[in-house]
Amino acid sequence: MTKIVNNTYKIELLRKQDTKNKNEKVKNMDDENTVFIGSKETMNYVMAVMEQFNRGSDEIVIKARGRAISKAVDVAEITKNRFLETSEITDIMTETEELEDEGGGTTNVSSIEITMKNNK
Amino acid sequence: MTKIVNNTYKIELLRKQDTKNKNEKVKNMDDENTVFIGSKETMNYVMAVMEQFNRGSDEIVIKARGRAISKAVDVAEITKNRFLETSEITDIMTETEELEDEGGGTTNVSSIEITMKNNK
């Protein structure tokens, strides 16, 4: 009886491991084509976008939250107007994300996702 | 001869006046459905959007430049999530505008136009 329980447990563990690996793979694939905008200079992110395109990605996503949203739009506009004229913005999505604040409550913050495509 | 010239002049004037009125009408119509985001509190602009919708507009445009872009996204997200759940964002466009600076040169600034629709 104990053995069976153990087996079930092992299978369960293996299944979890498998799911974990799959999720990580999905996450990594996603991250590779994504540029997250933070507090660095705008041009750093333009370079990051260019790097992704030069590595062969034909579609990248620029993501930002809160005040960095303006910078995300700058990054997309500068990339397409000054650096890569074959690129274009194909989609812009916004949403509201709930973040936990220090007091245990939640704060709402807007976020943006700008999809860019390079028409090689 | 002078009279004819005068008449032509008058007609020209009337035509200009007419065009001017038409342009003003177009401009006003456009402005009525547009909320420009500036340096006031976010909620002021949410109220302005709500006012436009309550006046019967079924489509409004939120416009912003530079750092106000993040606020424009906040205004749209707050309106649709907290105030008017029948409304939605139907289009988001960005572009680069050339502004003249004090020295007579030009500066590039990103701008955004968020179109919202109320599905009554």
Can you summarize this structure?
With 120 residues, chain A is α+β, with helices and mostly antiparallel strands. In chain A, 50% of the residues lie in helices and 31% in strands.
Helix content of chain A: 40-55%
Which residue ranges of chain A are poorly predicted, with pLDDT under 50 across at least 5 consecutive positions? 1-6, 23-29
Q: How many beta strands in the DSSP annotation of chain A? A: 4
β-strand percent of chain A reads 25-35%
In CATH's first tier, which class of the largest domain in chain A applies? Alpha Beta
Tell me the quaternary state.
Answer: homodimer
The CATH H-level superfamily of the largest domain in chain A is Alba-like domain
Largest interface pair: A-B, 21 and 21 residues
Sheet bearing the most strands of chain A, described?
A: 4 strands, mixed
- Give average pLDDT of chain A, whole number: 84
Query: Which structural category do the helix and sheet elements of chain A fall into?
Result: alpha+beta
